[in-house]
Every structure is written in C-alpha cells, then in structure tokens.
Design goal:
139 residues; mainly alpha; 65% helix; 0% strand
Length: 139
C-alpha cells in the first residue's frame, strides 16, 4: 500500500509554493510551533511533499504561461484592429506599449542629429540610425 500525502502536508506545500517562509507555512499547516524551522526543513525533504510542491509549481507555471499567451493574443488583436472594430488609435498605441513591455522590447532612443555634431563625434548607435534613415530615403 503506497503512502499518500496528508492534509497538513498538502497545506504546507501549497503555502510554500506561494512564497510563504517555511516556518510560517509549517505553522499555518497546523503543526506544533516548537522548532518550526527545523521541522519545516525536514518536511521539505519528504518525497511526497517535494513531489507535490513540484507539481504545484508546474501547474502554476503553466497557468502563468497560458495567461501570458492569452494576454499577448488580445493585445495583438487590438493592434491589428481596423476602424470597423471600433478600436481607437490611442488604444492601439497603448496595446503596442503593453506588448512591448511584456516582450522586454527596448524603446527606440531619440537621437540628436543636429548640425553642430561632427560625424566623428557620433556614437555607433547614432551612426547606425543615421545610416538606416538614409537607406530608407534611398528606397
């Protein structure tokens, strides 16, 4: 007969997964308070508890990824919407900004290309941007 995880172990594992300190999770699960941190550490070595924590973390990660994918999909639909969809340009811009943050995209930097700057004083990024502008003009 295989051993099953008990209700206190379940409660302990659930508290650990959401970031509760081990000793606090131990007490919240209904265990006695004496030597809580040592006993909580020992409980973390229990194969049933370890397995349940891993399972909960996997489910949590999967749910976060699914939620993020759904969020990106909604934002993309707003960005690609046309006038008939009753989505304003302001909404589209906000969707682009939000999607950019989710994707960790860097914002374009404004470059000062005033006449006073000599070409030798331009940074690599400024030269690269200037070249890109000139190439676009040539198209």
């Amino acid at each position: 007969m295989s051993k099953q995880i008990n209700p206190r172990q379940l409660k302990f594992a659930e508290a650990v997964v959401i970031g509760t300190p081990l000793d606090t999770a131990y007490l919240q699960a209904g265990y006695v308070g004496k030597h809580a941190s040592v006993r909580a550490s020992n409980l973390m070595q229990n194969p049933l508890v370890k397995a349940h924590i891993k399972e909960l973390q996997t489910k949590s990660t999967d749910a976060i990824i699914a939620s993020l994918i759904k969020c990106k999909s909604v934002l993309t639909k707003k960005i690609e919407a046309n006038v008939n969809d009753k989505v304003t340009h302001q909404t589209q811009i906000k969707a682009i900004e939000t999607l950019a943050k989710l994707e960790n995209w860097e914002s374009p930097q404004k470059i000062d290309l005033s006449v006073e700057k000599k070409i030798e004083d331009l940074s690599y990024d400024e030269l690269h941007s200037l070249l890109a502008i000139e190439l676009k003009k040539a198209e």
